[in-house]
Description:
Layout: E1 8-15, E2 22-29, H1 31-44, E3 50-54, H2 61-74, E4 79-85, E5 102-106
Parallel strand pairs: 3-4
Antiparallel strand pairs: 1-2, 4-5
Helix pairs in contact: 1-2
Amino acid sequence: MSTVVMGKYQEQTVRCRACGDTRRTYAEKQSDVALGTSMVADVATGKVDVAMLVSADSDLCAAIHTIRGLDQERGTKTRVITARPLSIAGARGFHWLWPRIWQIMPV
């Protein structure tokens, strides 16, 4: 079983300090909290024994530390695999390498 946790984007208006022009931009909101909470809940309820986290956000380390704490209390060992995507900008023109542009790191 796998769960994909999607974030949401919130519209923001940004003003240029130099010229005063404004433009619309979007910021990702609540994704890291939703993902971390989902991971911890799945481990706490025994739904998973392996979790894979694909993110470059170090804020999610707290969820992994919480999972480690749960494992220590229960005498279990949940395998957590983290994958940090490489810069998409650095991968332009290399779409044929897509399966290889992830760095997989066991935690």
